[in-house]
Each structure stands twice: as C-alpha cells, then as structure tokens.
Design a protein that fits this description.
alpha+beta, two-stranded antiparallel sheet
C-alpha cells in the first residue's frame, strides 16, 4: 500500500466526517485490499455511499471543465456535463468496480455433459485505463465441462462479461480476470476465451489508426494441453459472422 495511505486508526465519528471516497479508501487500506482501476471494491462500499461518490465526482469533474476553460455557467451544452459524466462513470461504464457480482444460478451437471460448448460472440464494452477511451469488442467462450462442473445459463455468461468489462483496464488483464471468474464458478476440464476489440485510444488519438484491432486469448486445462481441442475451438470461431 502507498505510504501516503489513510491512517489505520479512526473513530466512527471521524470517519463519518470524511468524504465518501476517503471512507471507502480507509476501509480498503485497513483491509489491505488492492483498489486498482480494474478491481471490484463493492464489499467496502456501504449503502448510500455511491450517491455521495457521484456527488464528489461531479464536483471534481466540474473543476476539470473549468480547467479546460469551458464556461459551464453559460454554455447550455455543458451545464449538466459534470453530473452526466459522474453518473456515467459510477452507474454505467465503470459499474463493475462498484457493484457486486450479479446473481448467477449454478446447476449440477446431471447429464454428465462433456462435449465442447461455445458461447459467443458476446458484445463487450470496456475502457482503457491509460486514457479512459472506449474499448468495444466481442468475446467467445469455450467450455469443456466434466461431471462435477457447475452449469450456468447462456445469459449469465453475458452478465459476467459485462461485470468484468465495465472497469478501466487493459484487454490482456480483462480476459484473464474473466477466465479466473468462470474457472472458479464452472470448474470445467477446459476453458478457452478469445476477445477481439477496437481500442479508441488508437482510433481517436495518437496514431489515429482506424483499422487496428487487438485479439488475445486465454487457454486453460484441456484447451492448453490438447492441440486438437484447441484447433476445433478456433476453427469454429473462424466461421463467425463479420
């Protein structure tokens, strides 16, 4: 943890006087819990604090607009921009940091299914943690269950993807985090994930390359060990629609 982190000893009365962001940070530091851009911190947020956090972000965003020399008092287009951005960050594009894991019902593999299953493409939306520019892409998930695996509904894969992706991050880490979550929940013999995405930090700024995409994958268990299974999964992806 940073040497400038909040001191560990505070009374409840002192904590109550702190801004919500400082109270949440205090709990995280006290619990020795990491809070990087792509970490979920929902367990350390108390009821009502997200509304306080939005108000804080709104005030700070208003100062950013002032620093950009934008007359938000008289410009009708930016009167409520700070409020909109705060709501967008907390409730939408970074909600995967602040909201708990969505409820996912798991079922035993009663029929002992052990054939390759592919889910996708699932549309995903994330943000680059370097510039907070959008990352828009698609994910394919391959699962090779065993008799002890937990099965989840197809829509639940999309919900888990959305929860993981709605954070500032880099694509390589996002795919690994998704693989870890699915491995823990489904417990398959093999798990494969491929993500293909446009990065607007390349399209919109810097080199301004509109054609580049990033594709990366994670292979676990049987997909890593069995080249034929891996080829079958990847060959089926090659039949995806444009």
């Amino acid at each position: 943890m940073s040497s400038s982190a909040t001191p560990i000893f505070r009374s409840e009365e002192e904590l109550a006087r702190l801004p919500a962001s400082e109270r949440i940070r205090y709990r995280l530091v006290s619990a020795e819990c990491r809070f990087h851009a792509n970490d979920n911190i929902a367990d350390h947020i108390e009821p009502g604090e997200l509304d306080e956090l939005k108000a804080e972000v709104q005030a700070k965003m208003h100062e950013v607009l002032r620093a950009l020399v934008i007359d938000t008092d008289n410009d009708h287009n930016t009167n409520d921009t700070a409020k909109r951005v705060a709501k967008m960050f907390i409730d939408e594009v970074f909600a995967g940091r602040y909201r708990p894991m969505p409820s996912v019902t798991e079922f035993p593999n009663a029929e002992r299914l052990n054939e390759l299953m592919i889910v996708g493409p699932i549309k995903v939306r994330s943000a680059c943690s370097h510039h907070l520019c959008p990352i828009l892409g698609r994910v394919w998930i391959g699962v090779l269950p065993n008799e002890f695996s937990n099965l989840i509904g197809l829509s639940k894969y999309a919900r888990i993807c959305e929860w993981i992706m709605a954070r500032p991050q880099i694509q390589e880490e996002a795919v690994t985090m998704l693989a870890n979550e699915l491995q823990e929940r489904v417990k398959p013999d093999g798990l494969a994930i491929v993500m293909e995405a446009d990065h607007f930090c390349m399209h919109w700024r810097g080199v301004k390359d509109d054609e580049s995409m990033m594709v990366n994958s994670v292979m676990r268990g049987a997909f890593l060990k069995d080249a034929n299974l891996r080829r079958e999964f990847l060959s089926l992806l090659s039949k995806k629609t444009a």
